[in-house]
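Hi D.,

Good news: the full-assembly prediction came through. Inputs first.
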Amino acid sequence: MNPFRILGDLSHLASILVLIFNIKSTNTIEGISIKTQVLYVLVFLTRYLDLFSFRLVSFYNTIMKLFFISSSIYVVVLLQRSKTTQAVAYKTMLLTDTFKVQYILLGTLIAAFVINHKFTFVEIAWSFSVWLESVAILPQLFMLSKSGKSKSLTVHYIFALGLYRTLYIPNWIWRYHTEGVIDKIALAAGIIQTLVYSDFFYLYYKKVIKRSALNLP
Amino acid sequence: GEETMSHDEL
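Then the structure:
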């Protein structure tokens, strides 16, 4: 474990905690894309199939996987529950959360069948999960750019999420130099994901660092 | 042949 990977996983953990805190404390779901959250549940379910094979990598690895699966499902449950507790906000979310996820799912499914480490169910599922994760934030970014404004907690959530995968890139470089091993598929998807976040990072930098209003394009 | 990927990362 190198510092980049630890910081990356902690940033990922923090992003989910910020999101849950965001929903629970402000008791509103405004500006949160349920589509992105459902995609993340799919990412974790397809990636962590090895939990069922009980060939556990390490205690840390296992508890983090269980946390990511359970917390991402919990977020979707919270958002679904707002259908009754905040019917108006829920309806607004559905009206603004209009990104066509069908294209993401089809594209990543094709990518998984074409580019994978082994043509087995587990490896295709893993590859699907990695490609899906690289674009899963798109509905959320799309919603954010359309609304033009957002609660700072949502922006911090997206930033922490983007930081996690961006930190994985130096992690892979570190591991390549120390272990001589690199996962090309994970690297390619990680670079795509970092590029997807790049324009958001620029906006975040302007808003949070420069304290200027987040006037999205 | 493909190295059997043991995905040890999250």
